[in-house]
Amino acid sequence: MEQDIIENIGRVRACLREGVTLVAVSKTRTAQEAKTAYDTGIRDFGENRVQEMLEKKPMLPDDVRWHLIGSLQTNKVRKVVGEAYLIHSLDRPELALAIEKESAKKDMVTDCLIEINIGCEESKSGVLPEGLDDLAELARSLAHIRIRGLMAIIPRGTTEENREYFRRMKQTFDDLKRKESENFRMEILSMGMTNDYVTAMEEGSTLVRVGEGIFGERDKNRGGNKNG
């Protein structure tokens, strides 16, 4: 297993474009599996659940950057603020206000990505495209949140169908880049997973989230397959 992870990471790295961040999606994986990836030089790890991230965090070195890539409930905000390097799933006003409140309590600024439901799928989280402007305006007004870019999980489809969604995300990213402010920047475009990260990079992704492509097929009894 350890050697498989090392070889898989080598294959993924061989495909990475310059300047693209690789996040190893370690959800449902053991801390030892994550440590094997860490030992190859990976420092960015993605988790879906707050509790799982908090359990693994003390088992890995302090220089790991933990990305919360799953949906975040407002009642879990107090646990994640100050613990996650980057929250990928800011998708609604009440969550933004909860992060702002908790960050203010801790006298810190929390880095977030706005998650967009670019395919308008009922089964997926993310702000719908028509609600993006209002959420962005709210985020700009909050002193303890720093928006660093966008995230999306696109609908499953053919390579060309995927490409169209990635292009729409990149266009949205570029449009918002013209409206940047001190706490609202378009630096990170988080899109692309195991089956489509190469296409995502071709269309402008700056961060890809790879789980099964690194750790192998996931035991479906240990968690869902979102975000990897």
Sequence stretches where pLDDT stays below 50 over 5 or more residues: none
| H/E topology pattern | HEHEHEHEHEHEHEHEH
Overall pLDDT score: 95
Q: In angstroms, what is the radius of gyration?
A: 17 Å
Strand tally, please?
Answer: 8
Amount of helix: 25-40%
Largest sheet: 8 strands, parallel
- Gap between N and C termini: 18 Å
Secondary structural class: alpha/beta
**Order of strands side by side in the largest beta sheet?**
7-6-5-4-3-2-1-8
**Inertia-based shape:** globular
Q: What's the CATH H-level superfamily name?
A: Alanine racemase
Just name the CATH architecture. Answer: Alpha-Beta Barrel
Q: What CATH first level would be assigned? A: Alpha Beta
Number of domain units? 1
Continuous helix count: 9
CATH topology: TIM Barrel
This entry's quaternary arrangement is single chain
Report the portion of residues in β strands. Answer: 15-25%
Q: In a few lines, what is going on in this structure?
A:
It holds the Pfam family Ala_racemase_N. With 228 residues, the chain is an alpha/beta fold.
Describe the structure using short key phrases.
228 residues; alpha/beta; TIM Barrel; eight-stranded parallel beta sheet
Structural features, described:
- Belongs to the pyridoxal phosphate-binding protein YggS/PROSC family.
- One of its GO terms (molecular function) is pyridoxal phosphate binding.
- This is Pyridoxal phosphate homeostasis protein.
- The chain has 228 residues and is of the alpha/beta class.
- The chain has one domain (2-216): Alpha-Beta Barrel (TIM Barrel), CATH 3.20.20.10.
- It is 37% helix and 19% strand.
- It contains 9 helices and 8 strands.
- It has helices at residues 2-15, 31-39, 50-56, 77-80, 93-105, 132-140, 159-177, 197-202, 212-215, and strands at 21-25, 44-47, 65-68, 86-90, 110-116, 145-152, 184-190, 207-210.
- Strand 6, helix 7 (159-177) and strand 7 form a beta-alpha-beta unit.
- It is globular.
- The two termini are 18 Å apart.
